[in-house]
Design a protein that fits this description.
The structure holds 2 protein chains of 2 kinds.
Chain A: H1 2-18, H2 31-36, H3 41-64, H4 74-96, H5 98-104, H6 115-125, H7 130-160, E1 162-163, E2 166-167, H8 177-180, H9 182-201
Antiparallel strand pairs in A: 1-2
Chain B: H1 2-50, E1 54-62, E2 65-72, E3 77-87, E4 92-99, E5 105-113, H2 127-131, E6 136-137, E7 144-146, E8 156-158, H3 164-183
Parallel strand pairs in B: 7-8
Antiparallel strand pairs in B: 1-2, 2-3, 3-4, 4-5, 5-6
Classes of the chains: A mainly alpha, B alpha+beta.
Chain lengths: 202, 186
Amino acid sequence: MSSKANTQSSLQEFVKGLWKENPVLVQLLGMCPVLAVTGTVVNGVAMGLATTFVLVCSNLMISLLRNFIPKQVRIACYIVVIATFVTMADIFIKANFMEISKALGPFIPLIVVNCLILGRAEAFASKNGLYRSLLDGLGMGAGFTIGLISISAFREILGNGSFFGITVLGSWFKPWLIMILPPGAFIALGFIVAFMQVVKEK
Amino acid sequence: MEKNLSFRMIGVMLLITVVSGMILAGVWAASEQKIEQNMEQVKLEAMQSLNPTMAKNELTQKEGESLYKCYDQDGSLISYFFIAIGNGFQAPVKVAVAVDPSFKEVNGIRVLEQSETPGLGAKITENDFYDNFVKLLIAANPITCIKGDAKKDNGEIKAITSATISSKAVADLINVKIASLRKAGF
């Protein structure tokens, strides 16, 4: 009985990040990369995956060290752990995906200050075991990626007539340039968050 | 008790930072070569795109300065190609430059590395900005950055709107490099 309740709630641990507590569309966390890199779907996906990698690794490491780190210096320790994984991701992308590294520029190192990651470390991983922290990290990372994909798809389709770099709207379509420019990020985010609220109310 | 806690805090932080540092050193050592290869590749691509007719190139050094001499198929020297590095708005900017072998005219530039503000200073990587440097005369004056209409025969480039610092940084770092190459006797 207890084990059944446990598996059910661990599934919820994963699912909550996708919809009910989606970091981008509901919690509005980590808005800097969300607004900055969602000009194209490729950048959105790359940013989402890099953030997910960092989030899962830091959640695991912090959960593992949660009884070892004195609580007075916990934030400093979390930042060192997070910065280590971010630098690893940055080096990996630089070595293997030069083009993506050029496109995302300074936003990869800036994952360090994404409040979503420190937020999950403080609110979840420091109080829960390895397995649950892994599920939480995967769910939140997937939710973050979904958020980035929906905003960048909205912007790329309207702003460039393409999706994932492939033209989807014919030559009759005149791109709304503003959607690719920074204001487009705010407009897209506003509409998508409003849509989420309408769906939730029903 | 108090003292024990202080030691523990320091010890744990020290341990975490040392282990992190070691892990990163390992990751860096494993990737360094590949990153360097990528950089080399980017440099070669820039060289080829600035000298479309280039058939071969040769690295030349003189008094601590170095540049690539680019030759076309007939073996005649078409341009000098070099890398110039300088400070941008907040981090170093690395630019590839091709000039004619008498240093009278810039043939073109490509920005290889930069961390300028996205949407503003980062426009130094766009073709509109590169066009400023195609056939830019530098025989009389060094490159200057001006707002409004620029005269190419006077070494003038048009600054990017709201990114004057980044535009000026690119002009300055090229001027500095050209001056020291001239001084070295190229």
